[in-house]
Amino acid sequence: MNKLLLIRNAKLFQGEKYLNKKKQYFEGWYFKNTTLQNGIAFIPGINIDDVGAKAFIQVITKNKSYFVNYDIKDFEYAHSPFCVKIADNSFSDRNIIINIDDEAQNLKIHGNIEYSSSKNIHTNAFAPNIMGPFSYIPFMECNHAIISMQNTINGYININNETISFDNHRGYIEKDWGCSFPKSYILCQGNNFQKRDASFMFSIADIPFKLFSFKGLFVFF
């Protein structure tokens, strides 16, 4: 796909050119799903370095975090419609299908979540995503994008025989990609407020930029 089209459609997989190289690269999507009392987040992605390449799914609950590794051959993607698959797991801005059975971590997860009524940030040619014009700079070590500030979620996730049910609850989707994370950063996000349609996110980080670094900040409400 044309590089400019990828930049303006940041939810799509950006790292095709790195798949057959031993060059440091990562790309991951963050799917946060919450009720007022509970929640679960999934981070599917890939990591490539001089040792090799792998796919992974990180699972974050209110009590614990799990990291499940996969062979890079288990990673698949599609641009139209957007979808990322890792083994028997599928992620898109329309739904999530989860099937994880990791005996080593005593982890069993299965379920299906449907997304609708997505609310996105305003974009234009100058600012194709939350990073504004920095989205076009090719040597940024870490890129960030918001895919959905808020969406409506329905469905369920069963984790180790405990079911989390979603009935018109709230979701959030973002992603990161590049060669390394900032050395320090803070990220805050929420969309369960008294006003039903309110959403907020804030991030500040040390951004390396060739021979110097600077503080990068973005906030959206």
List strands and helices in order, with pairings.
Layout: H1 3-8, E1 25-34, E2 39-48, E3 53-61, E4 65-71, E5 75-79, E6 82-86, E7 89-91, E8 95-102, E9 107-119, E10 142-159, E11 162-178, E12 185-190, E13 200-209, E14 212-220
Antiparallel strand pairs: 1-2, 1-11, 2-3, 3-4, 5-6, 6-7, 7-8, 8-9, 9-10, 10-11, 12-13, 13-14
Describe the structure in your own words.
The chain is mainly beta and 221 residues long. Helix content is 3%, strand content 59%. The protein is built from 1 helix and 14 strands, in the order αββββββββββββββ. It has an 11-stranded antiparallel β-sheet with strand order 4-3-2-1-11-10-9-8-7-6-5, with no helix packed on it. Strands 12-13-14 form a 3-stranded antiparallel β-sheet, with no helix packed on it. The chain is globular. The model has no long low-confidence stretch (mean pLDDT 91).
